[in-house]
Amino acid sequence: MKPRGQPKRRAEPVPIVLTPDEIALVRGLVIYEDPHIMALNKPSGLSSQGGRGQVNTLDELLWAFAKPGKARPRLIHRLDRDTSGVILTAKTKPAASFLGKHMMGRRFSKTYRAIVTPDAPEPAQGAIEAALRREELGREAYMRVCPLDHADAESARTRYRTISKAPGAALLELAPETGRMHQIRVHLASIGRPIAGDVRYGGALAVGGHAVPRLMLHAAALSFPHPEGGTKVIEAPTPADMQKLIDSLGLG
Known about the structure:
Blueprint: H1 20-27, E1 30-33, E2 37-42, H2 58-61, E3 74-75, E4 84-90, H3 93-104, E5 109-116, E6 125-129, E7 132-137, E8 140-145, E9 157-166, E10 169-176, H4 183-190, E11 206-207, E12 210-211, E13 217-225, E14 231-235, H5 240-248
Parallel strand pairs: 4-13
Antiparallel strand pairs: 1-2, 2-4, 3-4, 5-10, 5-13, 6-9, 7-8, 9-10, 11-12, 13-14
């Protein structure tokens, strides 16, 4: 019997055996690496962690980088399953602790791009400040705009800027100042400018005669304090499917 007061040992994660194709896939996502950190350009459709019905999540695919006697890289933050873009990992425990502390201190700056319909917001640049609450519907979780004095309200603020616009659509740059679940998606839907392909929050599945293959939201850049000092900025190129729609709509 374990003596009282003795802390429980945390179970070590069981290594995942990956196929050669899975290893090649995740290695091909790396866009930056140094002794402390590694950043990847996550594709849409891949869950960061704990995805339902996923054979492997990104967190599990990180076993491809595990080395004998060393921990695998650790995710520092998450992206929605259908959001693409830059996601950061720490390669060491000190780096994970450092980055986690600064993320909690809101010293991370995230920049997203999104295609919205049916037009650019008015005004073309500004901020959306609306509290959000979580709502469970069956096995699915949604976020809803709510009054700030609601019992479950979480304050949320998203800055936006219109990059370009065309008939029926606009390309926006977005910077969330808080990190609520689905924050950008719900904020844009709340002002009548849902993200194209966002079935959950009313996004269009076709724009200007062009099919929208998935949620058109991309984490384009991440700025954060680096463990060795200074600020690091990592950018993730726009995925081919999103760039194709940008070009087809004349938003490039």
